[in-house]
Amino acid sequence: MADALLEDPHSAVDEVSATALLSRATSALRTRRLAEVAELELALQWAVLNGHPVDERDPMISPAGDGAPPVREHAVPELAMARETHAMTTRALLADALDLADRLPRTWAFVRAGDCEPWVARKVAVISRALLAHEVGIVDAAVSRAIAGHSPSTVLEIARAKVIEADPATHAAERERSRHERYVSLSRADELGYRCVISRVTAGDAAWVDAMVDRVAEILADQLDPDGRPLRLSHNHDELRSLAFGWLGRPADLLRLLLEHIVPETEPETGAPVQPAWAPDHLSDTVQRLCALPTRRLAAVRGRGRLFVHVTDTALTSRTGVARIEGVGPIAVSQLAEVLGHADVTVTPVLDLAMRRRADAYEHPEVVKDHVWTQTGGDVFPYSPRTATRNAVDFDH
């Protein structure tokens, strides 16, 4: 037996023709699909066997969609132990099998024949599970025509489209709910001072942001670095896009950059500049007003943020050493230019913690908050995680 396992696989390949290998690959594919079908059919049989309560205290559940039969709740972990899987995994198998057999019979016929990937059909069952029994037939009819000959992504797109068509009211409600889940957040800073900006926006807004980042990256690629070389030689495309993303937070600088790199379109015959369709008259008026603004007013267009940086005068003058940014952590002093290079910096003296000020109001004055923060460095409760930024600390408790 050991000698057979140690046999050189290349010698066996040499004895088999390419046609035979391809035939075996097709056969192996069908065998795998039918094995998954057999597992789904076993789950169906188990659901039928446990479709009625043993007594009045035996709880029943409905893991599948509308119109599919219920199953004894205790039957799920029993099957899970036999399959050596988690109960939730087995529940998902039962739900998919019941949905395919009772709600998507046309698609189920292709699955049983081994003509499609069972996992794709199971995904369709999940996508259409919220539909009522009289609505899901639209999905079944469309998917059954495509599942045997199209890619999984195409089949799933068809399923999602038909779910919207079958129940537009629910889809509109889901869109409204999802609209309230949009956000923009920042990850924690890593040890090198970088953070991730994570956002959930509409597809249209994402396309506009992506296009603007690409345009700014294209402009920055021709800018010169401190050594006089174009940035494209020292930065790859992703690095340039990352730099471009930072420009979005400086609208005044961004506008100047874009205006300096506009390529006017001209008529081929007359050579006269033409106004593109994407630049209506009101946009030209806006640009003219911005150009007329004084520098101080234009600087006010920038957003305002607060970063608390702790650094000594010695470190600043020598440009060596470490600075600490609240919420970010320690960074090299030479890296401060990347963080504060485009900002107005307010320098405050070191606090004299021996000088206390009385505060009898419920709200703590900002000066007292600064004293408390400097002394404690955050929430002093044991193992409290709220030590990164002063905004997360409850100063009055």
Gyration radius, to the nearest Å?
A: 32 Å
* Overall tally of structural domains: 3
Order of helices and strands: HHHEEHHHHHHHEEHHHHHHEHEEHH
Averaged pLDDT: 82
Cα-to-Cα separation, first versus last residue: 73 Å
Main features:
397 residues; two-stranded antiparallel sheet; three-stranded antiparallel β-sheet; single chain; mainly alpha; 3 domains
Blueprint of the fold:
Elements: H1 2-5, H2 9-14, H3 18-49, E1 60-61, E2 71-72, H4 75-83, H5 87-102, H6 105-112, H7 118-127, H8 136-146, H9 152-166, H10 168-179, E3 183-186, E4 197-200, H11 203-220, H12 231-234, H13 237-247, H14 251-260, H15 281-292, H16 295-299, E5 309-310, H17 313-318, E6 322-325, E7 329-332, H18 336-340, H19 366-376
Antiparallel strand pairs: 1-2, 3-4, 5-6, 6-7
Helix pairs in contact: 3-5, 4-5, 5-7, 6-8, 7-9, 8-9, 9-10, 11-13
Describe what this molecule looks like in 3D.
The chain has helices at residues 2-5, 9-14, 18-49, 75-83, 87-102, 105-112, 118-127, 136-146, 152-166, 168-179, 203-220, 231-234, 237-247, 251-260, 281-292, 295-299, 313-318, 336-340, 366-376; strands spanning 60-61, 71-72, 183-186, 197-200, 309-310, 322-325, 329-332. The protein starts with a helix and ends in a 21-residue tail after the last helix. The strands form three sheets. A three-stranded antiparallel β-sheet has the order 5-6-7, with no helix packed on it. It has 19 helices and seven strands. It is elongated, with a radius of gyration of 32 Å. The chain is mainly α and 397 residues long. The protein folds into three domains: 15-166, no CATH class; 186-262 and 277-299, no CATH class; 309-392, no CATH class.
